[in-house]
Amino acid sequence: MPPIPALSPALLPVAAPMPAGGGPRRPRLLMDAARHGLADYRRGRDLPRLIGGCPTSAQAIAELEAREEEAERARRAGSPAWSCVRHVEVLIALMAERALLAEGLAARTGMVAGGADLR
Q: What pTM was estimated for this model as a whole?
């Protein structure tokens, strides 16, 4: 039986852009895993582990975006330092913090915002 060829990150299927429009594209499997993990996100538990504290959502988003970009560069380069689990954890936190920020903005402007309790 012939060996299975190694998959290049460039050959992986690409998913829809991340939330907040115009964002970078990521592999569908990576994004699906992150979406499934949203239900288990707990800000007080997960943010300190990922970024070392619990800043405001806007600050957390900026830090998480930087961490995610770093993870994506490592993934695309095929770096042995890249961790799929860590990348998914950062994506989960990033999506959850964006949702929390949107809910907060909607509440301040009087708009109705639905969604799960992510706190």
A: 0.72
